[in-house]
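Query structure, 496 tokens:
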């Protein structure tokens, strides 16, 4: 649940191949036979202290509807986003994802972009209507062929594929027939789709996220009407939509494990409601932990615990969804890892002498932001989110499945994009992520959102989140200054 009915941007949506040489290596070029100076020794020690764990995964992320284009090619069916984006006034400038970044045709070029910045992993989503144009029934072989080509291209270039099975592009037929996520029939259909995909690609893909950002495709889509399909249900309907979504997750996990051709790891990618102690005292830290569990009660908490918290059930009252004990057992299916999308601190928290044991501190009016006023700069969120996930649920592996920022990137006269604001953002946030790993919090990898500028949902092409600049007229990709920063961090596995 979101506190105080606040609509933030995370509520509104996240709206060259030669090896990079680390700084310490640069200092040694041309003087290999000389003894290192005391300054160089100190620098080497600093680098060692700033290392991320061995085998830390550095990756980038995208979503099918935001980058692929080719919405009417090779038998792809219609999604709710195809429909919603064509309604005048719903998307900024009436943009749509018909072409997007044309990754469907340019995936080989984009794999080389990843390789050029030493991204060792790629988190991509699979378009459900591309695989099943009618949501269930006969699969579309040409749809699967595209993902087979993409997966093979990634592996051929030493990049590990991480597949997300649902990133909001629900087949329109499920919306028309059942009301989409209002029905448990959609959860069943998701499990069938997940089963088929796992059967076909689990010989090569070993890491899976079931569904991405539940709050966005439940409350924002069926409650506030801000995202496709744009409905405004009463509270009881919203609670049922949430339950059906986490049920789809649980059913999918069980089905996928039964059909995998080789050992796989399954998790979820959720935009966790992040609670940060406003001052790091023991009482406030304990309060932040309590707040994290309750603020995520309807989504991440029930997936991790297989039950709704007492306070959550009490708060719903007569509006509680219909569910069974067997469904809760499915929803709580054990996971191999937890993926969290972290952009900022949703709430600052301090201990309080009340029933909850905490109170939420509102952000100050002048709290610093990125280009968008919703994006309050709070690097510490990238420390506290994985820390509290680990402590609350004893999670053995955590991935940061999304982190990044939107900026108003502009080309210089020389054709460069000097996005110093994004570089600043990354430096500060990765400092807090490094703090987490040095304390033994089991963060296994970081996926930057996004590889390249793309269709940012209701903001169309008006906000840019990429490491690569997209010219939407020519579809030319140009690396930004932030791509160079990411490249140096990923290649050296060191905080710079």
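Result returned for the query:
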């Amino acid at each position: 649940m979101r506190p105080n009915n606040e609509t933030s941007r995370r509520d509104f949506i996240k709206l060259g191949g030669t090896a990079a040489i680390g700084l310490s290596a640069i200092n040694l070029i041309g003087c290999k036979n000389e003894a290192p100076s005391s300054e160089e020794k100190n620098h080497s020690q600093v680098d060692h202290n700033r290392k991320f764990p061995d085998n830390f995964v550095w990756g980038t992320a995208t979503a099918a509807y935001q980058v692929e284009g080719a919405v009417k090619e090779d038998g792809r069916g219609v999604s709710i986003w195809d429909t919603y984006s064509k309604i005048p006034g719903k998307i900024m400038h009436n943009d749509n994802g018909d072409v997007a970044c044309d990754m469907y045709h340019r995936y080989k070029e984009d794999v080389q972009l990843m390789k050029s910045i030493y991204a060792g992993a790629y988190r991509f989503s699979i378009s459900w209507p591309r695989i099943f144009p009618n949501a269930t029934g006969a699969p579309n072989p040409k749809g699967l062929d595209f993902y087979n080509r993409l997966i093979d291209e990634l592996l051929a270039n030493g990049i590990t594929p991480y597949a997300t099975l649902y990133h909001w592009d629900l087949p329109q037929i499920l919306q028309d027939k059942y009301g989409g996520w209002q029905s448990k029939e959609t959860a069943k259909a998701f499990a069938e789709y997940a089963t088929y995909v796992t059967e076909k690609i689990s010989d090569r893909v070993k890491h899976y996220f079931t569904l991405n950002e539940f709050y966005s495709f439940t409350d924002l889509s069926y409650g506030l009407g801000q995202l496709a399909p744009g409905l405004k249900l009463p509270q009881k309907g919203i609670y049922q939509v949430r339950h059906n979504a986490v049920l789809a997750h649980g059913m999918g996990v069980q089905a996928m494990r039964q059909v995998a051709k080789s050992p796989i790891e399954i998790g979820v990618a959720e935009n966790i409601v992040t609670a940060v102690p406003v001052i790091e005292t023991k009482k406030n830290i304990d309060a932040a932990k309590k707040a994290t569990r309750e603020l995520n009660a309807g989504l991440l908490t029930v997936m991790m615990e297989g039950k709704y918290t007492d306070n959550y059930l009490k708060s719903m009252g007569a509006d509680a969804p219909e569910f069974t004990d067997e469904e809760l057992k499915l929803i709580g299916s054990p996971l191999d890892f937890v993926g969290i999308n972290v952009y900022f601190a949703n709430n600052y928290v301090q201990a309080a002498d009340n029933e909850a044991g905490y109170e939420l501190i509102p952000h100050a009016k002048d709290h610093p932001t990125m280009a968008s006023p919703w994006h309050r700069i709070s690097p510490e969120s990238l420390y506290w989110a994985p820390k509290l996930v680990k402590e609350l649920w004893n999670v053995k592996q955590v991935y940061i499945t999304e982190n990044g920022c939107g900026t108003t990137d502009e080309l210089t006269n020389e054709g460069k994009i000097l996005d110093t604001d994004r570089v600043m953002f990354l430096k500060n946030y990765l400092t807090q992520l490094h703090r987490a790993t040095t304390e033994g919090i089991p963060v296994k990898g970081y996926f930057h959102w996004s590889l390249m500028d793309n269709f940012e949902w209701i903001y169309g092409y008006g906000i840019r989140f990429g490491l690569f600049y997209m010219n939407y007229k020519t579809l030319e990709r140009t690396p930004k200054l932030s791509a160079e920063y990411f490249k140096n961090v990923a290649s050296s596995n060191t905080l710079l």
